[in-house]
Here is the input.
Amino acid sequence: AESAKKSSGAEDLMEIARRKMVERGSLANRIRIVSRVKLKDEQFTPGMFVRVHLPIPCACDQQSDIRIEKLFPENGIIAPGDAGQRTVCWEENMQENHEFIVEYSYIHTARYNDVSKIVADKIQPDFDTEELSPHIVFTPYIRQLAASLTVGTDDALEKARRFYDFISLNMKYNFMPAYFTLENIAEVCARNFSGDCGVFTLLFITLCRCVGIPAQWQSGFTAEPGFVGGHDWARFYIAPYGWLYADCSYGTGAVRLDNEERRRFYFGNLDPYRMVANSAFQAPFLVEKKHWRADPYDNQVGEMETSDRGLRYDEFDRSKEVMDCEEL
Here is the structure.
């Protein structure tokens, strides 16, 4: 996942949004984004075949009224809304090198969840509690860590809170190499006490699933007025309430800012400045790539391949921009 430095103005925006959510119960924005990819000129040969994927908003609890406003070229194949990793895909024998562009808008609604008022059922459901090798695995170390962090409680919400506290209060944010170069990301994070947003998310999901709490991956963008960047976070299920959210990375950021209210907010809640493209880790595309993906686990910046091979990120240019963000 990408990481971006936020300005003081962006930090103030998050504080304003958080307060509004607490006061009103929810906050919604219509967000408009344009994303582009283009093969670098030195990689282009007239007549070459390319297959291109760009992420687009998926149908999920937070997002509604998703509109594909513009496609170039216009023959892009749009995955269904419930795709685990939703993209628009183009296949073309290019006679000249050009950009592939998708522009879309959607309503993102963030509802405030007061976790202090939630009473968890004694018996929780068992969906989304399985392992997913190679990174969501219940190793002996993970089992021991989960057990030690949950000593003295049988309450599912309290267990999840302890996992969030363990990560947000103790972990250090570091830039990470490409995930396909890493082994067992969750355990490495638990041992090294460092990672980025995706690494923290995988550890939280793994700990939750290890003790029987349903947990899922979500990723896409942080999408604010004047800023857009790749980001990952988790959601977890507590019966009888339903799905809640955990952004461990933003939690660690709140610790750096000495803002305990914000840290607590991101256990149970997300801000309204998100674009969710991916609701599953390691999910295939509707039009599958024939060759190795630049990121085989997630998709935030797009993928390109030729008839011969998948392209590395340094072989194609990509950009994204928030065109409009209007509070509703």
Remarks:
- The longest strand covers residues 26-39.
